[in-house]
Amino acid sequence: MLNVLAVIFYILAMLMSVWYAFYKDTRLKIASLISIFVAVIFQTITIFMLYEELAIFPIFSLKYAVFMFAWAIAVGSILVSILFRETISVIGFSSPLIIVLLVVSFFLKGSTKELSPIFNTDIFPIHVLFSIISYGLFALSFVSSIMYISQETWLKRKRIMWVTRWLPSLFILDDLAYKTLTIGLPLLTLGIITGALWANRVYGSYWNWDPKETWSLIVWFSYIFILHGRISLGWKGKKFAFASICCFLLVVFSFIGVNFIFKGYHSF
Amino acid sequence: MKLLVIGLNHKTASVELREKLSFTDEQIPVLLKEIISFPEITESLILSTCNRVEFYIVSEDTEKAIDIIKGIMSRYGGVDRDELSSHLYVYFDRDAVTHVFRVASSLDSMVIGEAQILGQTKNAYRIAAYNSTTGPILNRLMHRAFRVAKRIRTFTTIGLYNVSVSSVAVELAKKIFGRLTGRYVLLMGAGEMAEDAARYLKDAGTTKLIVLSRTFSHAVELAERLKGSAVEFDELYNQLLDVDIVLCSTSADHYLITYDKMTRIMKARQHKPLFFIDISVPRNIEPAVSTIEGVFLFDIDDLKGVTSQNLKEREKATAEASHFIEEEVNIFMNWLGELALVPTIVSLRQKFEAIRQQELKEAISKLDKPTEKEIEILDAMSKGIINKILHEPITEIKKVHKSGEVLKDINLLKKIFKI
Fold this sequence. Notes:
By secondary structure, chain A is an all-alpha fold.
């Protein structure tokens, strides 16, 4: 199955990235990038196949939502590795997260019954895409923040070893944690707006205080808050990293927790 | 035909001597042409850097070749021949090949793993090739040298670990700040190590350098040397509000920068990262300062800890590199042997054939009206004798060739048969 291949290539990408930590051979870097790219291709193909099979965008169950979340993180990782210097280690750190999400999605049930026609509008996929990609970017900010805190701790304690050499500079990690949010937040905004537009199309009102809607608003405000902290109050480095990690925990809750705890039309 | 390396380097000669013998890219073609004008020398190349001057020569007559090179070095460098001899090293054949490979791979450099020497070697080759003083042996030698240097760089960590305090300081600065362009360095005090580190940082891209000293005139003098600016000592705390990297190396015997003062300063600069390098003994920066958020403090012991860790890694890499070189040397010696083998065997056969033809002619002239058949018999017999005689030696030589040791035997063969 394509998904198993995808997991294999994610593992490969992670191994290449870690191996690069020991032998700074550019070919390992390229191998890592190619592996993760191939894995993403496999995932993308699966998504298209599902789309064909189900005739609607495959995001109506937790299984596929998690699947797409992993995909979004992978795509983001590739972009980061290309756009930021010396960030091949990002793949090393985000791959475990991606792999765990994929494996979890394998074990979840993807219910195909009760496919309401409410999902059959063209605004729905756009809403989903914006939201999932924004979550992927928030995940990357989370990964960068963890990398930042690790690197800073080791440097401060004067422990210089292969990991400190592998990880990029504090400057880049901090910049990454911030810049991913500057793209993620607008995307989430669009995601919420298109979601409201969709709700109106289907239910006749823009906002219904569905738990998921409410929580996505909470997430939105949280990220606005820390971006404000960064821009106006000069939150940087460790402080910002911790904030980003906390916000991401909110994202995880709004994604998964809400589905299990609350019941609304957003739950799977 | 022998391959020779003659030269001197930072291990065998002082910097004054090396300076005299350091040849420019303009002078080298002149020297090369003069060397090659001697019939004994078939190929030559000159490598001249600030740490070494080496001549790679292919020659029939090694003693004459050494003599020629010494003469040239003495003349052009203005150095007495005898004085020169005591600093020179000479390598032949296998040792020469090993040396060339080691030099190109930076294993013979002052700082093992440095990246400049390969480019310098390539340049030296380019000049020699352009002036047509290289031939099949040097061409192949240099190409294999570049190849093994690249393999070593790719497959070992030889260039990776910094072993000087200054380079480690730069590496750490890069880990904190990323690119160093636009960064501001403050140098407190003076001293060789501090100056070296300041220079390294400047080379790595830092833009602003301010020198601070108890004695303002000292600061000014140092600032001029390092192309920075000087300030009065009481400016210290003001500077600490803006600086990114602080190099501290004064003779003060107390803490010049204390925990209390730094706490306030870091707060004022919103914990913008600050990297302290304290190489003073006793330390001038209170150790507790490292606990303040945003501060990274490394003293001389910390830096030495990193360099000694790195040194171990570099030693490992050097051992790996030596293996690669050993492999490549074997391959090259095999090729060299092969190169010399065929023409030697041909020469040998030709010589014996010439003797045979001569004796056959004489024998025929002594016979009274020999028939065709009789001539044929004489011809076949003489041929048979020659072939049987040569058969074993040639087979043995080809066998020895496989083991890579054939050059010595070929030279011996040529010597005793005078071919």
